[in-house]
Amino acid sequence: MHDTLPLLNKRGFPRxxxxxxxxxxxxxxxxCNQSCLHCHVNAGPGRTEEMTLATIESVxxxxxxxxxxxxxxxxxxxxxxxxFRHLVCAARALGTRVIDRCNLTILMEPGQEDLAQFLTxxxxxxxxxxxxxxxxxxxxxxxxxxxxKSIEGLHRLNALGYGITGSGRVLNxxxxxxxxxxxPPQESLERDYRVHLRTHYQVEFNNLYALTNMPIQRFGSxxxxxxxxxxxxxxxxxxxxxxxxxxxxxxxxxxxxWQGYVYDCDFNQMLGIPMxxxxxxxxxxxxxxxxxxxGQPIAVFDHCYGCTAGQGSxxxxxxxx
Length: 321
What we know:
The chain is of the alpha/beta class. It contains ten helices and ten strands. The longest helix is centred in the middle third of the chain and has 16 residues, at 186-201. The chain starts with 15 loop residues before the first strand and ends in a 13-residue tail after the last helix.
């Protein structure tokens, strides 16, 4: 695995400061039932890192004390953490909106047969990764047979009301480009997804999020190996749009790793870039319970161009209409 961090501090991304904190994005661990080429977490079946119950309790305390409105749960496959359901139930009891970043195939894993029903009963929003609506493209990026299992997972969720207009059960899909290119316009791509999935598979969903691949971890290392890293980063830099700075997710979100350490965003977490705070070189959630976070500087490197290139990219999809 190539270290891309030394390659990401040459172009001088504009300075950013944090706005009002609304979202806590929590990585429950790096274990996953898939190993995807574009994965910026480098997750997979062989990873063993996972958040403990004690750290999950600190997450819940932070959500309560800081009046966090959205808890965004990710991984790996976050559902594989043995305390996932406890976290969901406790957060929902606080009235917090909960998003599960689900890879769809986890719904068919042994021991997860009731997962879809649990998510339904708990009122969890699902953001599901489906990097293309074509079988060959998905299997090439995520592994043979993944597309078929993903469609099966979507059918299960649709049967429970997810993605069905008027049900109140939100199902969003996530697209990633196949290689070192920017995603196409999100609005037109969503129309293509909707028509194809409805026509060929009778699948419904609410929204499509088009995300830019980040030049870090597994995807970044692949770019280095192929001699494409500089070209891809130049593509991001030349497509930079200053208007996207206002809506980047790091201005309203904190990212928490499986050990409870806090970062400005999920990508900084994967690169090990700490928050630029004076009092704590590497803060944990407990250090920030009473800290003045708003207005503080955000750690930026050249990978931040991935969030601001073209239509922009965030955990909620494109930033520009």
